Structure prediction request, 155 residues.
Amino acid sequence: MNKLTFAVVVIAGSYFSNLIGVAEAATRHHHHAKHTHVNKHHQKASKQMTASWYGAKFHGKKTASGELFNMYEMTAAHKSLPLASYVEVTNLKNHRSVIVRINDRGPFHSSRSMDLSLAAAQELGMKGPTPIDITPVTFNQFSAQANRNKSNKRG
Prediction:
């Protein structure tokens, strides 16, 4: 095996193992944070997840992932989900859903679980803080959604 082939195999292997790790981490987080939190005394407390959005004030500023925030992309900020992971966010008021990529940390308000980009908030039909559900997205689910989005743009 020549050096180039070996390099491609190593890079591809690390890429796909990273995707699996992200999906597993998101699944672990989702299972833990979906509706309950266990404190140090092992008492369960119900917790409603709420999202808001951020836009023009942060547009073009650096995110926790190092990229510039673009309020027109489908992205979100979350305190602990892995950066570069994907999740499906569902507006519990109207049941509309979008897939977003976690690229920033926050929100920095105790009453909210997630801050969405303007584009994601508009797709969800949000009008201020909104109750949400967060579901981790596997690589296969993301690919299928991307293909549906391409089809919708063509026709």
Q: What stands out?
A: Helices lie at 3-33, 118-124, 139-154.
